[in-house]
Amino acid sequence: MKLITFILLLILSPNLSFGQADLNNRKSIFLEIAGSGGLGSINYESHFYKKGITEFTWRLGFSLAPIDKNNGTAIIFPVMINSLIGKKKHKLELGIGQGFTITTKGSPFALTVASIGYRYQAESKNWFYKIAYTPLISYLVDFQVQQWGGVSIGYTFNNTIK
Question: Is residue 81 within 8 Å of residue 97, measured between CB atoms?
Fold first, then answer.
């Protein structure tokens, strides 16, 4: 319960800041269908660095997924670092992170999550759309790669892309 409270405080904290001042206002929330959070997730994203045509963001998500009778439901927290590469509204998005999971029966596990995709966000618009290949990589017991992908729609608050 303390972990969930801590994560919610991170998501809701308006004073979280990294890097350049003009990027601190660029925070987004998006719904991802399939993708890094499993069947679907709600995600918070914050931009923290920009140089040239490359921007860096971090994201934290939340998802629930049914597993089976023995394990119950999985509570998934995908945490990722992403880079957005491109000019204007068309961007290549690359990301890597961890998907931390705990089941309602108390079993924890982790998966490495990766992402390579396309992001469209018009310069003066707050809405964005993404499509990505998001393999889920298991390495704790044995090495497995689950082929996966996702689509997203999101909203950027205080969009300063000019």
Answer: yes
Q: How far apart are CA 101 and CA 77, in angstroms?
A: 6
Structure confidence by residue, pLDDT tens digits, 9-19 = 445 454 444 44
Give, in order, the Cα–Cα distances in Å from 126 to each of 70, 141, 153.
43, 42, 11
CA distances from 77 to 21, 22, 135 (A): 27, 28, 16
Alpha helices in 51-161 (DSSP H): none
Does domain 2-156 fall into CATH 1.10.287.130?
no
- Cα–Cα dist 79/144, whole Å: 20
Contacts of residue 12, Cβ cutoff 8 Å, sequence gap at least 6: none
The pLDDT, as a whole number, for residue 24 is 54
For the chain, give every domain's residue range: 2-156
DSSP, collapsed to helix, strand or coil, labels residue 80 as strand
- Residue 5 backbone phi and psi in degrees, to 5: -60, -45
| Phi, psi dihedral angles at 62 (to 5 degrees) | -145, 135
* Closest by Cα among 120, 58, 111, 52 to 83: 58
What gap in Å lies between CA 150 and CA 32, rounded to an integer? 7
The reported pTM is 0.81
